[in-house]
Design a protein that fits this description.
about 20% strand; 1 helix; about 170 residues; 13 strands; three-stranded mixed beta sheet
Length: about 170
C-alpha cells in the first residue's frame, strides 16, 4: 500500500503534478511479501539521458517482517528517503538497491544480512556512518562509493572488500 496511491501498485510516480502539489508518500509494504523486486519504488533509469525523473516523493518505507531480499535498484534515486531500517530476516540487498538516495542518512542492517550487492548504497551523500552486520563476509565494488562516510564498523568475519567500495568518501 502507498498513501496516497500512485500510478503503479506499490509506488507513486514522481510526476510534475505531485511535486507541485507537495505530495509525499509513505510506502507500507504488505506483510507476507518476501521480495521487493527490481526498480519497485524507483521512478528513474540508471542513466539520466533516458529522460525520467527522480522519485522525490517517497519519504519512508514500512518494511514487513516477512521480507527476505531487496531487489536491484529497488529504491534507486529515491532522493527524499531519509532512513532505512530493514527487518530481521533480510538476507540480501541487491545491486544499486539504494543507489543515489541522496537524503539517506541512516541505515540499520540486521544481523541476518549476508550479501550486499555492488553499488547498493553508492552516492548516498547524506550517509555518514554504517555498521556492517556480523553475517556480512564480503562487500562488493562501489558499495559505499561517493558517500560521506566518516565511520564504518566492520564485522570480525569480513574477508573481502570489493574494488572502490569506499571511493570518494569524505574520510
Amino acid at each position: 500500500l502507498l498513501k496516497p496511491v500512485g500510478s503503479r501498485e506499490l509506488w507513486g510516480r514522481d510526476t510534475a503534478s505531485n511535486r507541485r502539489a507537495g505530495a509525499r508518500h509513505v510506502a507500507i509494504v504488505p506483510e507476507g511479501l518476501t521480495t521487493i523486486g527490481s526498480w519497485a519504488f524507483s521512478d528513474t533509469c540508471s542513466t539520466l539521458s533516458l529522460g525520467r525523473d527522480f522519485n522525490t516523493t517517497l519519504l519512508s518505507v514500512d518494511f514487513p517482517s516477512s521480507l527476505v531480499s531487496v531487489g536491484d535498484c529497488a529504491f534507486h534515486c529515491c532522493t527524499a528517503l531519509t532512513s532505512v531500517a530493514l527487518p530481521v530476516g533480510v538476507v540480501s540487498i541487491g545491486e544499486e538497491a539504494f543507489c543515489s538516495c541522496s537524503s539517506l542518512a541512516s541505515v540499520a542492517l540486521p544481523a541476518s544480512v549476508s550479501s550486499i550487492g555492488r553499488g547498493a548504497f553508492e552516492c548516498c551523500r547524506s550517509l555518514t556512518s554504517v555498521a556492517l552486520p556480523a553475517g556480512v563476509v564480503s562487500i562488493g565494488e562501489d558499495v559505499f562509493s561517493r558517500c560521506s562516510l566518516t565511520s564504518v564498523t566492520f564485522p570480525a568475519g569480513l574477508t573481502s572488500i570489493g574494488d572502490s567500495a569506499f571511493r570518494g568518501c569524505s574520510s
